[in-house]
Amino acid sequence: MDRLGTTQGHALPAHPGAPDGHGRPDRGARPDGGARGTTAVVFDLDGVLVDSFAVMRQAFTTAYAETVGDGEPPFEEYERHLGRYFPDIMEIMGLPLEMEEPFVRESYRLAHLVPVFDGVPQMLRELRAHGIGLAVATGKSGPRARSLLEQLGLLDLFTVVIGSDEVDRPKPAPDIVLKALAVLGSGPARTVMVGDAVTDLNSARGAGVTAVAALWGETDEPTLLAENPDIVLRAPAELLDACFGRARTP
């Protein structure tokens, strides 16, 4: 495994797609078949694959207390910027960059408390069984993301796991998605990006891939829907229906 977490494997051709006249996925598509023809799926991590918000809140609270001092940690504001790289969020919020060290330390310490969303492992395994290439493109650092996925027993399901510290411009720029496409060998018209934040949708669209909104976590649903995602999913299993245009197998 290299520094980006690349493992053996490659995406096989999937079912024929239904692109528009320009060879792109139909941007009006929904889970009744809008992503058919997909050969690769790029996932955000927090709020999409894992329910990390309780641990994130605890780590943020500790980091704020150690670095800033007394007062109520502005976690709700922090949540509005999720998907971005932690140092970028600190800069946006006007908080000291020194918060990163205790935040990362506590995130590692509490990682065993992070659960995987129900249905995610089954969904990932079925996608892999159908030759779909899988990647993670996260606001976390690459080492922290790979450590968490390995602890959860999911790392081997992904061809590549890329953190925001491993691209020149993190989300909402398209760089992290484009890097995943290059490793997976999948074109934008055959790739979807699944995220729970506006930054994910912007990154997906900048890369020319289908932008999929995942609503099963603690996302700000009205804000996410206002961005007009190409596909809206309310459960992990719905991604199978979107990609294959059929009922999922047991």
Automatic annotation (TrEMBL):
Signal peptide positions on this chain: none
Gene Ontology molecular-function annotations: hydrolase activity
Basic and acidic residues: bias regions: 21-30
Hydrolase found in the keyword field: yes
Region (Disordered) residue spans: 1-35
Keyword Hydrolase assigned: yes
Keywords: Hydrolase
Pfam families given in the database record: HAD_2
Protein name: HAD-IA family hydrolase
Organism whose genome encodes this protein: Streptomyces marokkonensis
